[in-house]
Amino acid sequence: MPSLLLGALSCLLLALNTLFWATPLLLLSLFKLLLPVAAVRKPIDRALNALATNWISCNSAWLGWTGRHAWDVQGLEGLERGGWYLVNCNHRSWVDIFVLQRVFNRRVPFLKFFLKQQLIGVPVIGLVWWALDFPFMKRHSEAEIRKNPALRLQDLETTRRSCERFALIPTSVMNFAEGTRFTAAKHAKQASPFRHLLKPKAGALALALNVMGGQFRSLLDVSLVYPDGTPSFWDLACGRAGRIVVRVQERALPTELLGGDYSGDPAYRERFQQWLGQLWQEKDALIEQLLHEAGTKKPA
After folding, report:
1. Which of 81, 125, 219, 298 has a Cα-to-Cα distance from 52 of 20 to 30 A?
2. Is residue 105 part of a domain?
3. Residues β-bridged to residue 9
4. Are 116 and 204 in contact (CB under 8 A)?
5. Whether the predicted model's global pTM rises above the 0.85 cut
6. What's the domain range around 77?
7. Whole-number Å distance between alpha carbons of 213 and 290
8. Coil, helix or strand for 183?
9. What are phi and psi of 36, to 5 degrees?
10. Within a 13 Å sphere around the CA of 37, how many CA atoms are in the beta-carbon half?
11. Roughly what angle, to the nearest 10 degrees, separates helices 151-166 and 203-212?
12. How many CB atoms lie within 10 A of CB 63?
């Protein structure tokens, strides 16, 4: 099938699938909004997650239907759907979300992402994310925070409230520690010490460990590589995403980092940043290795 026709059909199927599952999701979320008590909320949350899991299963079938992507996924052994996970991944493209959902669907509890506040305005799907309790972060600029330091606390409070809701039923809390998609321009502007990564931001991860640290089974450290170049969503829809390489490393969370005060304890903040920095060094080296094994000299 020609790529343009495949892309158009893919987008149509994705839109119809989203509308199909969004209708019961949004109707059910109204009951949760009107009756915000734990006795009602927990069974409704389970039903919402079940609907969302079916939605992702259909999306994954769509990805398989396009049929032109070479998947290389390792590290899924031993994962369980009955516990909580903290998931962290490097961020290249909007395609990352579809990839992660396909890889983890029905293997771990439903993934809940930290999203930019502007995305709540995306037609239909923004409301679905809201119904599923995805946290929306305002991402104030450093200049805005310097002018009004209280703005920094807004995202922290959003994270805290979301994590308290996530603690009710098994959930995989997903975070892109870079905070934004990797581009060469952003990499240069940051003067990032990593070859394939932007500098990690520790705040959301640290607060998730503060609120839910004792519940997390482990950290799922995900490294995502597109050896043929970073694809756009349209590339994915047209079957032109090329090779998709995913490595999942299940890591124990250091007990000394559970329950700490990242914003108020400088010593804890330094320990946390050192731990995350070490993870990032290992991830950067792994991405370099995966690119070498894939036989490409392109950036990850």
Report:
1. 219
2. yes
3. none
4. no
5. yes
6. 70-294
7. 31
8. coil
9. -85, 60
10. 3
11. 40
12. 22
